[in-house]
Amino acid sequence: MSTIIAPSILAADFAELKKEVEMVNRSEAEWLHVDIMDGMFVPNMSFGLPVCEAIDRYNKKVMDVHLMIEEPGRYVDEFAKRGAEYITVHVEACKHLHRDIQLIKSLGCKAGVALNPHSSVSLIEDVLPELDLVLVMSVNPGFGGQSLIAGTFDKIRRVKELIKKTGSKALIQVDGGVKNTNAAELVAAGADVLVAGSFVFSSDDPIKTIADLKADLA
Ligand code: DX5
Ligand code: ZN
């Protein structure tokens, strides 16, 4: 399977949201990553349901919603109604992670669990067979434009081993500081899905940046 690219709309120009979503539609990216931040779980706020609904009106890619909110189970049905196909919750934000995963799946969505840089991969071992995606945070969540934490590569390898051991079919996604200089190494470590925010949206030609990234990984 070739590497999936998921541009993060957090890095887009929100005053031009429709144009930015349509740009991603025209690109070779397979997914569109949508970051939801509540100002509690992470020290920043992004946007919420009405903006997600607006994105869904134009988006033609797989909508990949990353919930950086406390007790996300309270809102997963609302995001499912607004086009989310993958819904990822943080292991650190859920009191009842297993229940939240079941809820996401009961809504017909694919379930992901994210691990902050400080969280051990062992935290997800018991739910791995239920998961469609494991999100390895390669920065502390809350802001775009940060540098990838070096320990990420080894962590991806450890998640990959655990996936094999448990017979899980989960994809491994990496989010934060992804760019052309580290993408190949992330994929070699076991990443299936690369989220890229500022690297794509800050470039002069985002469509070409995405195409070049895919060509480098082919
Ligand atoms: C960080 C978000 C990321 C962010 C990535 O909390 O979860 O998805 O948009 O942005 P870059 O690629 O700029 O690090
Ligand atoms: Zn994200």
Automatic annotation (TrEMBL):
Keywords: Carbohydrate metabolism, Cobalt, Isomerase, Manganese, Metal-binding, Zinc
A GO molecular-function annotation: D-ribulose-phosphate 3-epimerase activity
Gene3D superfamilies according to UniProt: Aldolase class I (3.20.20.70)
Any one Gene Ontology cellular component term annotated for this protein: cytoplasm
Pathway where this protein functions: Carbohydrate degradation
Active site: D35, D175
GO biological process: pentose catabolic process; pentose-phosphate shunt
Pfam families: Ribul_P_3_epim (PF00834)
Catalyses which reaction(s): D-ribulose 5-phosphate = D-xylulose 5-phosphate
Manganese found in the keyword field: yes
Catalytic class of the enzyme: isomerase
Annotated EC: 5.1.3.1
Cofactor: record remark: Binds 1 divalent metal cation per subunit.
The keyword 4Fe-4S is annotated on this UniProt entry: no
Main function: Catalyzes the reversible epimerization of D-ribulose 5-phosphate to D-xylulose 5-phosphate.
Membership in a protein family: Belongs to the ribulose-phosphate 3-epimerase family.
UniProt protein name: Ribulose-phosphate 3-epimerase
Native source organism of the sequence: Fulvitalea axinellae
